[in-house]
Amino acid sequence: METAVKEYTYKDFASDQEVRWCPGCDDYVILRSVQKALPEIGVNKENIVFISGIGCSSRFPYYMDTYGMHGIHGRATAIASGVKLANPGLSVWVITGDGDSMAIGGNHFIHVLRRNLDLNIILFNNEIYGLTKGQFSPTSLVGQKTKSSPYGNTQPPFSAGELALGAQARFFARIGGNTPKEMTDIFIASEKYKGTALVEVLQNCPIFNDGCFTKYTDKAVREDRQLFVEHGKPMIFGKEKNKGLILKGLRLEVVTIGEDGIEETDILIHDAKEQDPTLHQMLVRLEYPMVTGIIRSYEDVTFEEREDALTVQVKSDSAFRKTKDLFFSGDIYEIK
Amino acid sequence: MDINTETPQEILEAVIIRFVGDSGDGMQLTGTQFSDTSAMFGNDVATFPNYPAEIRAPQGSLYGVSGYQVHIGSVEISTPGDEVDLLVAMNPAGLKTNLHAVKPGHTIIVDTDAFTKKNLEKALYESNPLEDNSLENYRVIEVAMTSLTKEALKDVQGLDNKAITRSKNMFALGMVYWMYHRSTDHTIDFFKKKFKNKPEIIEANTKVLNAGYFFAETLELIPNAYTISPAKMPAGTYRIIMGNTATAWGFLAAAEKSGMELFLGSYPITPASDILHELVKHKHFGVKTLQAEDEIAGITSAIGASFAGDLAITTTSGPGLALKGEALGLAMMIELPLVVVDVQRGGPSTGLPTKTEQSDLLQAMYGRNGESPVIVIAASTPANCFNSAYEAAKLTLEHMTPVILLTDGYIANGSAPWKIQTVDEMPEINNMRLTEAKEDYHPYEREKDSLARYWAVPGTPGLEHRVGGLEKDKVTGNVSYVPENHEYMTRIRAEKIKRVQNYIPDQEVEFAQSGDLLVVGWGGTYGSLHTAVKHLNEEGYGNIGLAHFHYLNPMPKNTEEVLRNFKKIIVCELNTGQFVKVLKSNFNNHEFLQYNKIQGLPFSNNELKEKFKQILS
């Protein structure tokens, strides 16, 4: 039965629970951006499910007036996989953090990407453990002083994008925690994408790691330090829109249009839909500029499509309709 | 083919046969064929495969011996039996490791071709047991099986040497078929199905099987053949079923009866993997399976599927249950249906993966952080795995709490006749699903008698809600740190489990209902305990009852009453005494004797009888 899609505003997605993140936390921005994206995706709210792990970000489902589960540490992706396999008609969102997804939940994180179920994962990356009050995380920088690394962190960090692409992510986007409009658009795109869509939000933690992304996200420097990529458009950035990327040998290089004979037509065009992730890998690794936007959006068969096709095949090949057909098949015998 | 009619027949009530050889010798197949054929003939049957953890252990080594024991009878058969009437040993290592199990004066068939100097050394024999009179207390039948197999196959085209030697197990099977008056038809049909596209393999196996059969017939060393008449079993249609298959089928039946889709999240682990292997075949029934990246994803994906409205299960063995502990606590906390099957094996740690034990009971009952009671039940026989899985599904759906079903390697891999049950004969399964919005829905409102909460599933308009592992308000389910609320919720979660007592049958006692000794057991030891208690009652050793527990948490309401009716109580377990701990803590006005065995093996009939006699004297 087709039900008409209801009209919503962002307020329809706010639950009656008081939001309890620290004042100034980017989590508020993400919450509002999600609430603003949902009226645009064309799904009734009874068909939307938020699943989280443990950590500051994972309180998220309590604040959404949809179905939701606050799971256990690291396992949100696995729980969400079960939800989606049980009912592929649902719009399923995973809320996770850098520790939740890449430390304790690292195994589930890589395998969910490999399988490519139609899920949306929002990764709140603040390069720190917030809820346990300030230990280094798998994305903390070498040398970073935290509660559990008072003399500086000695464990080199993961780049979420690099790890994800290595695990065969077909959709990867990155966005600063202080750009709600672009964030909303990315969430809408991630929901429309068929497959596992991972969105990394560079989320400032004002208490334990304040300013960790300022050099890329601060309004004053944002345009000069960030390259916001869009599929089919040249990779141009800068206040003057005169910086761009070219490929030189095996490296990306920043050039200035109008200098050294560089013209706009020399600048690389972003192809998010390319199957080969090589260039996407180079983009996620760049530190200057920090690349944001939808870096990769390669369309592939989803896990549930493969499973469905198999089920249809097995059903049509099988003589079993009810369990009694199975129970009475093969070697049976009568005792009189 | 016609079965022999001319040789003198000796009629036996029951016989125990053990086939042993290298782990690549096909002993499991040989044993299965013999037990299936006997079951179809109408015998009662119990089997016990005993194989090493190594897939292909070094040839001829003592630890690479694989065995399969079959007990068949014209009388009720509850266990694979202890001492064997016939040992078929395909090599010296098999003989050495199994000779102790052969009844003195009984028969051993050996493949003399395998008794080479090299194999004797590998089996650590200083001299050839076939030549040094060390077997003089047995009737040894020496057969050059490998040579005879080669001879039988000399005209068959398209076989390499390896394929030829590998079919010698069928020579042995043919001999045993003749000895016990069995037709080879079932096995030949099996070849035809199994090797449909390999006519040369069908031909080879059939030739070797028949060669063994006729060899036994003409061999003067075998004085007579034996007959075991069909057993008196309830009329009906039967099949031979392994415990793990029965478990899988119980869930299929429960899904069909409840009208729900079955979801299995699982990670391969011995000896539970066969449940996954079985369920993954049944996509035609809408079964969804996820072979997950680890044990934790196995259970958490099942939790997600349950949240979304499926009948969700996860299957594992002891080490996997340990990994699932935190997630099981979540399922208990959010009060969702979920069945966890633990096919117990020898522990601790990796322990004895292919051997049996009952040492996960306390883990099942208490192995989680916080106060987190769940329903725990145990299956008693291979066929009972079917009913137990069905019942676990029924309990989890009706009571909105996880259920742990304990089976073990012994009944999971063992097989026995199963009188086929259909879904129509099975009890109704209800569930707590709310299908449409109701005014004032609160996720933690409970049904007043069972205390089960109502189940609102994504996709239902107006029932949107959140659940989670944080303590929640007793009605709304919102996060609550109120001290009194936490105590209330902790107590009500426990009370909900306790009230399951109102929905399960009383504990039954078999044999004497009161008297001298009550034998108490649980789970997969049923066959051994039943047989021992039956024998002692028949032999007139006093009034002995058997209370074999299926419901371990909660226990049936009348448990105390059952215990009260006997002068002495002995609790028998394949662990150091886990159930007895639970009994002692609940019924401290009774004295409990114990009999425990921790060898990775089931109880033997003799050791149980000796122990019980000692207590009664």
Architecture overview:
The complex is a heterodimer of chains A (336) and B (617). By secondary structure, chain A is an alpha/beta fold. Helices cover 29% and strands 19% of the residues of chain A. Chain A has a domain at 10-212 and 301-308: Rossmann fold (3-Layer(aba) Sandwich). Chain A is built from eleven helices and twelve strands. In chain B, helix 1 (27-41) runs parallel beside helix 6, helix 6 packs across helix 8 and helix 9 packs across helix 10. Chain B starts with 8 loop residues before the first strand and ends with a helix. In chain B, strand 24, helix 19 (578-586) and strand 25 form a beta-alpha-beta unit. In chain B, strands 11-10-12-13-15-14-23 form a seven-stranded mixed β-sheet, with helices on both faces. Chain B is of the alpha/beta class. The longest helix of chain B is centred in the middle third of the chain and has 20 residues, at 199-218. Chain B folds into four domains: 9-228, Pyruvate-ferredoxin oxidoreductase, PFOR, domain III (Pyruvate-ferredoxin Oxidoreductase, domain 3, 3-Layer(aba) Sandwich), CATH 3.40.920.10; 239-425, 3-Layer(aba) Sandwich (Rossmann fold); 433-503, no CATH class; 510-616, Rossmann fold. Classes of the chains: A alpha/beta (336), B alpha/beta (617). The interface between A and B is large, with 58 and 69 residues.
Q: Estimate the helix proportion of chain B, in percent.
A: 25-40%
> What is the CATH first-level class name of the domain at 10-212 and 301-308 in chain A?
Alpha Beta
Number of domains of chain B: 4
N/C terminus separation of chain B? 54 Å
**CATH fold field value of the largest domain in chain B:** Pyruvate-ferredoxin Oxidoreductase, domain 3
User: What would the CATH topology of the domain at 10-212 and 301-308 in chain A be?
Assistant: Rossmann fold
Give the number of helices of chain A: 11
The CATH first-level class of the largest domain in chain B comes to Alpha Beta
Q: Give the overall form of chain A.
A: globular
